[in-house]
Specification:
The protein is of the alpha/beta class and 279 residues long. It contains seven helices and 15 strands. The protein has two domains: 91 residues, Elongation Factor Tu (Ef-tu), domain 3 (Beta Barrel); 157 residues, Rossmann fold. Helices cover 22% and strands 30% of the residues. It is globular. The structure holds flavin-adenine dinucleotide and FE2/S2 (inorganic) cluster. Flavin-adenine dinucleotide binds next to strand 4, strand 5 and helix 1. This is FAD/NAD(P)-binding protein.
Length: 279
């Protein structure tokens, strides 16, 4: 689908949710059929007049009225301007774009590993699992630098009641789990024997988690990562987002690990992680 002109998007409300991050509720004016079939892990382009466009993930999917939410971290030009807006502001929206997470695949026990704002692209999957709409047992391992850096506080409160959620901190205080998610993988494998991984966060965390899961016997085709690339058109036209021979805006941002390795092996492009960062 080529959607060049942004549609009208209303900013309904927002609240602080993590360091330099806010939880936004938006409503798409006159939602289209595609908006109602968003798959967790897909993304949309948010346009601010005079400040350009940037990609963001859906935290909750648009409902019939077009209402959805997103977790956005303040990074630069566009997000600075967004954080200054009041409720009721009218913005631009294009989407949905890309491929979401695999929701139905041959694995019963799945682990979601997230770092920092990387929890946002996984939120939809976790929500589906807590509502028993997925035929999988999901456990979640979420790492943050410290408590104040954690995002999606309201969602995590609800998830804790429904599934195993381990929260780790690089700078833990008394009673918290010290370390990165990698240091707590053994505990999850011992308790749940996961057969598949969905992972989103800083590149080094994703790549190390994938390798650790391979070492514990997980198959490469059961490992999925969400990659971040600079995106402009989001429609396969500009070439800014390439991963090897593939465009992340269309073939990603979620990639199966074996396919990702294959793409890297067949290109001279630098390995993902060298030129990327995740919020
Ligand atoms: C598929 C996808 C989904 C995303 N989902 C979210 C989300 O849910 N929440 C969220 O907060 N952010 C998300 N991001 C990141 C978000 O798009 C960027 O932070 C955004 O472009 C910032 O815009 P800005 O104008 O405020 O900052 P800019 O002024 O564009 O950038 C600030 C700094 O970040 C660097 N930068 C910006 N984007 C990238 C990039 N893709 N790769 C490397 N460096 C970059 C710039 O070089 C600059 O140094 C997502 C990105 C992608 C590709
Ligand atoms: S963002 Fe233009 S081709 Fe992907």
């Amino acid at each position: 689908m080529i959607e060049a002109t942004p549609r009208r998007l209303h900013l309904l409300e927002h609240y602080a949710d993590g360091e330099d991050a806010r939880h936004f509720s938006f409503r798409i004016e006159a939602p289209a059929a595609a908006d109602l079939t968003v798959i967790p892990g897909q993304f949309f382009m948010l346009a601010l007049p005079g400040h350009g466009e940037a990609p963001f993930t859906y935290v909750s999917r648009p409902d019939r009225t077009g209402l959805f939410s997103a977790l956005i971290r303040r990074m630069g030009r566009l997000t600075d301007a967004l954080f200054e807006l009041n409720n009721g502001a009218v913005l631009g929206y294009r989407g949905p774009f890309g491929r979401g997470w695999p929701l139905f695949f041959s694995a019963q026990r799945v682990i979601a590993v997230a770092g920092g704002c990387g929890l946002a692209p996984l939120a939809g999957v976790i929500q589906e699992a807590t509502s028993n709409r997925l035929p999988v047992q999901l456990s979640v391992l979420y790492g943050a630098l410290h408590s104040a850096a954690q995002v999606l506080s309201r969602e995590r409160e609800q998830w804790r009641q429904a599934l195993p959620l381990i929260e780790t901190f690089d700078r833990a205080t008394v009673g918290q789990r010290q370390g990165t998610p990698l240091e707590h993988l053994d505990e999850v494998f011992a308790a749940h024997s996961p057969e598949a991984l969905l992972c989103c966060g800083p590149e080094p965390l994703m790549l190390a988690t994938a390798e650790q899961c391979l070492r514990r016997g997980m198959a490469a085709d059961k490992i999925w990562l969400s990659l971040e690339r600079r995106m402009h058109c989001a429609d396969g036209l500009c070439g800014h987002c390439y991963v090897g021979a593939s465009y992340a805006c269309q073939d990603g941002p979620t990639y199966r690990y074996d396919r990702y390795l294959h793409l890297l092996a067949n290109t001279r492009q630098p390995a993902v992680g060298q030129d990327l960062r995740f919020c």
